[in-house]
Amino acid sequence: MKREEYEMKCRHGLAAITIAGSLFSTSAFAQSQGAGEPPELETVIVTATKREQSVQNVPIAVSAFSGESLADRGVADINNLQEVSPSLMINTANSTSNGGTIRIRGIGTIGNNIGLESAVGFFQDGAYRSRSGHALNELFDIQRVEVLRGPQGTLFGKNTSAGAISVYSKAPEFEFGGNLSASLGNLDYRRIEGVLTGPIAGDELAFRLSGAVTRRDGYMTELRTGQDINNKDRWALRGQLLWEPGDDFRARLIVDYLEKDERCCAASFAIVGPTGPVLRALGGTTTITDNGRTVGANRAPFDQVEDGGAVLDLEWRLGDATLTSISTYRHLDAHRGQDVDFTDVDLFQFSDTQESFESRSQELRLAGTRGSLDWLVGAYASSESIASRGRPLVTLGATGPSYFAILFGNPAVAGLLQPGNGVSASFNQKSTGWAVFTNNTWNISDAWYLNFGLRYTEESKKGGSVVNETGTAGIVDNNWPCALLPVPTFCGNAGYSLKRSDNNLTGTVKIGYKLSDDVNLYAGWSNGFKSGGFNLDPLAYKVSPTGNVIGDGREFGDETVDSFEAGLKSKWFDNRLALNIAVFHSTFKGFQVNNFTGTVFAVENMPEVVSRGVELESFLAVADGVFLNGGVTHTDATFTANTPITNATANLGGPTNLEGRQLTNAPRWQLSIGANIEKDLPFLDGWSYIANGNWMYRSDYNTGADLDPQKEQDAFSLLNLQVGLRSHDRRVDARLWINNVFDTDYKQFVLDSVLQTGSWHQTVSEPRTWGVTLRTEF
Q1: What domains are there in the chain, each with its CATH number?
Q2: CA 64 from chain center: how many Å?
């Protein structure tokens, strides 16, 4: 198999590059356009449902972007994808390694509890990342990124209930070449990225080595010391080998490694409640700034990550069929800590948590064609081990006893508490799973086709925790926090060990009809499944805001979804305009919710959530070297009738259920408009000028997991721009760029302050950034 043919394959997505992926690759369009001919969009051949098709014939809502188009639009990491892909939203809370959340169509899983897997799956070259925070890394040397919307219940190695993001690295080449780029910007931003590729043994064995180093000062400032927080300090390497001994066999080995050592993440005051005077009486500062980028802390947070893995991708052609094997291994170690009260008063001492994740997976697929039937069968097996320990997890600080004495209006309370009293904890979980699946397309006629698939999945988990009090008090009931919060796992030096298993049959049925070569209609149903698990948090019992135990919250159930979707994919005006529309309605049962109430992380299954709406994407070749794209998504992601207010949504007040309330971080409207221009310079032969921009809009939404009305974020928009010069041989490429042109401030997440009733803390957006990038290819 030739490398060009291989790069078009879709390893774990349902489709490869869409027109969006090639829209900003001006050179690609030039190849499909002769002299004097009108501009047109390139016809992109993809492998949809693991088969080569035009993207306009794929019955799937998917957006994809080439690595070049992402670079042109200033997308340097996964977080920035939301600026170019409507329906996608990404947030970071208390940690990049464990506090990230990815949402598609308003649906996602808050990620700051390691017991929860993400509703949106993330795959890097076929390797599944089970937690969203593990995906929030740099993008470099990328072939394409795909965003698949809706449940992916049959073809993915791992079942996902809301969608998937797949990132594919560029493959080794059999000619020597490479590139080198360097960027400088404000906030002392520095980034170097390089690639080297070429043959090792003729046209059979090739290599590729790529890496990136990123440094940047933080954009938040600690009140007392002036130290910057939320900086970037990371580097990553990726090495590859591609072996093609003949036309019938191909092997690709990908090994990668990443390190982070950053002061992340800080939260500033959003609202100061009744405890504000108490904090000030103890010498604290409760300043609120307009942009929310001033924080209080006794010590800067830190987030240290080592993340590495390998993927072995093998493919055999066996006559009319193809056998594919994908083997993966990943290991991640994270060491993180922060001032858990988010103030410059020493209420609680610094937390210190170490986490490790180790996973393995094996997938086999056999695919072929028999008559009018394109068939595929496969099997998948995986295992994962998680270990976490907090030593300490949280303990009382020097002023903690005084704080509670003032708060409760009883000086005797201070005598019950001692600095250093608190909790250490360790958690563990082991999970295994396997699945068998099939996905097939029956080409009924030249116009009609039927896609159908099934998948049976079983997953088993064993996990729990050991929680111990710290301190020297001999009477448990007089130790913190037992005097204030009678939680069994705290006060009994308790823990738990549980087992659970889930199994589910998922499937899909879609019918398609080609009105013409340029217009394709499809409609169908699919469902998805996300297994249940354990609340790996020391407060694993349901606790009311007053500290009373109201139930056992150590375990939560699985999450399922049924989704109906219909769409139109079309090309117009001699292939100058592409217009794609999708209408969707997804019903989630047992929706997993995780909320910090100020005292406890409450993990619960909500009875029912519905996500429904419409998506539109359009791509237009305006003139030679001038291309536009636009996308808009309207989503109602709401709780349905008879969904009660629970501990996870206790701050709502008023109504007796959540009917009609929009989910957290789920704006009803998301828009994205982009433009790319590359034209020859009339006065300088062999050179082009480049200009591109991207504008993103979000309507208002609630940022709090408990949907408290005071945690609302107003509507806002962002604008990113680039201008530059590039030689036709690409030996020189110079860009000036500016992101968040109007320095728009917005809240990413608002949470209840730790044991500070009536107060809220917030994580906020990055400010305006600007700089220059120089790049050369050889």
Answers
A1: 3-777 (2.40.170.20)
A2: 15
